[in-house]
Sequence to fold (318 residues):
Amino acid sequence: MGKESLIGKGLWDSYSEKVRKRMNNPTHFGSFTEKDASLRNLKLVDVLHGSEACGDAVELFLLVEENTGKITDAKFKSYGCGTAIAAADIMTELCIGKTVDEAIKITNLDVEAALRDNPDVPAVPGQKMHCSVMAYDVIKKAVASYKGVDIKTYEEAEIVCHCGRITRKTIEDAIRAKGLTTVEQIMEETGAGSYCGSCIKPGGHEPKNVYLTDILEEILKPVKSEKSGPAAEKKFESMTVPQKLKALEKVLDEAVRPSLAADSGGVEIMDIDGDTVFIQYLGACAGCASSGRGTLDFIQATLRDRLSASIIVSPYRD
Ligand code: FES
Fold:
């Protein structure tokens, strides 16, 4: 098989020596039959997994010792590009000697790592990383078939970037914690989208259930609408008293009263003088004014955070 038929000529130098060797001379290429298995008193697992996007497919054959679940031998056939062949070959090798429960833990990142010549240098160019994902998927399918369970049994947290095995939670946490506002920042921070690029937005190499652009928009939408909301349009300081009252009531309803109600308390606005808001406690909060500033500070901090840093909250005295 000529290398130019497997990959683009310009990319050739981005492949490790191990990848180049295995794509041309895979070590575990082949198959097993039921007869092979029964002669060795082993169970044959034979599964085929394909990637619609690439048109690649890999068939994995495992010989399993039934009393221990140990994979004593394995072979594969691959119908695809050179990287898919190299990834399937090393994946097959990683399975041999492991139990099926150990094999299910092999990920495409392990496959890629095992193909590196130098631990610090990727074995394949980023855009070919997705070829190792197919190798990972076929193991899950094989183990599910061996155990007679649905493949969904082995689906963990929602993976958004399959090349880097980066979960939705990791991406969401990064956006919130670091205040990320662009896809480029997400890629920089988490690595998601930095390989084949399919998970960035629709129209990439293969379709995804959710894209980085979707997650970003979902998280930023409330922030944007909050910033463009009526309260933000006009500064608290320049509002009329009825406008201030309306804005204050809204914040109290959304962010203060539910907490007070949990302790059978409440709060009411009695007067507004400039930026000073006079309140009266209700229910169990009625003793708050004398028992300390905790509740007052909480209300003031919430109003300042949502409306204006100049707001002063004071207990009402008639
Ligand atoms: S799925 Fe390939 S870069 Fe994310």
Remarks:
- The two ends are 93 Å apart (CA to CA).
- Strands lie at 43-51, 56-65, 70-79, 159-161, 166-167, 265-273, 276-283, 312-315.
- The chain has three domains: 3-155, 161-227, 231-315.
- Residues 1-8 have pLDDT under 50 and may be disordered.
